[in-house]
Amino acid sequence: MDRAETLIERIFNCSDEYEFDRIALEVFLFQYNNNAIYRQYCELLHVSPEKTIHFRQIPFLPVGFFRSFQIVSSTVSPQFVFSSSGTTGNDRSLHHVVDVSVYQRSFSTSFSRFYGEVSDYCILALLPSYLDRSGSSLVYMAEKLIAASGHPESGFYLNNVEQLHQKLNSLKQAGQKTILLGVTYALLDFAAVFPVDFPELIVMETGGMKGRRREMIREEVHVLLCEGFGVRKIHSEYGMTELLSQAYSYGDGIYTAPPWMKVCIRDTNDPLSLVGDNITGGINIIDLANIYSCSFIAVQDLGKTNPDGTFEVLGRFDQSQMRGCNLMVG
Asked: What per-residue confidence (pLDDT) applies to 328?
């Protein structure tokens, strides 16, 4: 077993803050030595593994680098290239995934931690804008979870929403545990035309209006969805093209990450500094599962962490606020 494979086993068995810190420092060393772009970025900041004693000192690569460079910590050819949504090729982030089995292990293990055995569920996916294009990591995850559920009614929905409505009603009558995973605007559109009263249903939104609806605050969205599906809370999944791990919320927009993923908050005025709990700033993500890419990424969402280790996503960073994070992005 080579060093990366050994690290992967430790990553998915990480159980406490001390072990997370030790693994993060080893992953930083591995990526510093094997990812030329990330190493160059660290060198511009005058940070090296020899001078780094805690994960909070590790540099976070701005997520925009995935639009401009191939961010890979390996010489092995990628098995998959996931792409973000975007109006042109230049707008798309590309995540070159060297070992897709690590992604599968991450999302399947994480799902089980938060929801139990996937085979207990019927999983319905309402992801029209993602199905309309290729390269979606969310569609890949949904496909694998649908297959793993083994339920004959599990599947994707694009435009056949009337059939989805009938299926939800029959699943309710059957007492079947069901998850409806959907992009936000599609869930809102569906609930407005085909409301159901399915209190046991887990409605899980993945975010995204994509210009199809006016922007709405989370509380407003969740009130409409709760009314439209007859549920008390709306669950959420937080992930992105550039990551291999997801955090989940059981409601109220409060997310919990799996043990190998951590959110830190950067100062809005000094993006190279981190702030403490209950302070709004830019979200930085440590995703140790992203070992063959970059595990330390500064994303364009605003949020805050809570003392219990959970976090909240509060909006998007204005591009003008990203100064200081774009040392190499052209």
From this structure: 39
